[in-house]
Design brief:
Blueprint: E1 7-13, H1 17-25, E2 33-40, H2 46-53, E3 57-62, H3 67-78, E4 83-87, E5 91-92, H4 99-106, E6 111-120, E7 127-129, E8 159-160, E9 168-172, H5 173-179, H6 191-201, E10 205-216, H7 227-244, H8 247-271, H9 275-291
Parallel strand pairs: 1-2, 1-4, 2-3, 6-10
Antiparallel strand pairs: 4-9, 5-10, 6-7, 6-9, 8-10
Helix pairs in contact: 6-7, 7-8, 7-9, 8-9
Length: 296
């Protein structure tokens, strides 16, 4: 199978056995693909459970939580496929239409990544992602096209997008070999944006292609407004600026994020009585400052 494997599907499991099983069961396995689950040091031995339940799945157990980037990189290193689909374990696929995404990649040597349409798994399945707008040069903000809208086919045309969405992206292995693995210094959040910029700087394109739709349960692993999420969002926005912004825009972004956004968030969380989030914002800035001279 190793010589014939065309597609490697990689997902990370972290205390998410139920979600991971639902994803695996939504994938119609065939001899041209492999499914790899990286267990990121789950508290229970979920790796063994997955191996026993799905013998066709290759399970890699990490004794350390390597984060989103580190877990995916571990899977990529073991993958045999020509194309690699990185997909969150809190997603599922109703109709497995990966071939159009592969055809998109094969249509041009310049295209390295193809992302499917993302729809939320709740309610009437509103759109989560139909491409991204560019990041602003100072505020480090952008928007997911179509976010929250009902899907009436208004985003059914494929187009280039400046960034891939971490929940699901199909990538050429040869492009990864040229660009490098996902940057592990982020651990959680913003690593796919940074990685996208690495691909773009190398001359590659990233495309959104709605021929495939993935349904996303969103933030089952970390939770909305958790101290973990708040800490990494605060730190990693600054880290993204350090690694990718140049000249005066870099320092204006630092001023904006540390002098305006952080105090605003601290006041908001204080008024809400969320002192754990206040501490998370402070820790995020403190950690970034301590790593300023060491993290590239």
């Amino acid at each position: 199978m190793q010589n014939e494997c065309k597609l490697s599907i990689i997902t990370i499991n972290y205390n998410g056995l139920k979600d991971t099983c639902e994803l695996i069961e939504s994938i119609p396995f065939n001899s041209n693909m492999e499914v790899i689950v990286v267990d990121n040091a789950s508290k229970e031995d979920e790796a063994s459970t997955i191996s026993e339940k799905y013998p066709h799945v290759k399970v890699i157990r990490s004794n350390l939580n390597l984060g989103f980037a580190g877990g995916n990189n571990l899977g990529i290193k073991e993958a045999q496929g020509k194309y690699i689909l990185l997909i969150n374990n809190d997603t599922y696929i109703k109709e497995f239409k990966i071939d159009p995404l592969i055809e998109r990649l094969e249509s041009s040597d310049k295209i390295a990544i193809a992302c499917p349409k993302l729809r939320f798994a709740w309610g009437n399945n509103p759109i989560q992602f139909a491409g991204y707008t560019p990041l602003s040069p100072i505020t480090v903000r952008n928007q997911a096209i179509g976010f929250g809208e009902e899907d009436n086919g208004q985003y059914d045309t494929a187009h280039p997008t400046p960034y891939a969405h971490g929940a699901a992206m199909l990538i050429k292995r040869e492009a990864i070999s040229k660009v490098g693995l996902m940057p592990e210094c982020f651990f959680l959040y913003y690593e796919e944006l940074d990685w996208s910029m690495m691909f773009t700087r190398a001359g590659y394109e990233i495309w959104y292609d709605p021929a495939c739709t993935v349904y996303h349960k969103e933030s089952q692993a970390t939770g909305q407004n958790s101290p973990l999420r708040t800490y990494y969002i605060t730190r990693n926005r600054l880290l993204l600026v350090k690694r990718n912004y140049k000249g005066i825009n870099k320092y204006l972004s630092y001023i904006y994020l540390i002098g305006i956004v952080a105090p605003r968030d601290i006041i908001k969380y204080t008024l809400q009585g969320r002192l754990n989030l206040v501490k998370a914002v402070y820790r995020g800035i403190k950690t970034f400052n301590s790593q300023l001279s060491t993290v590239n």
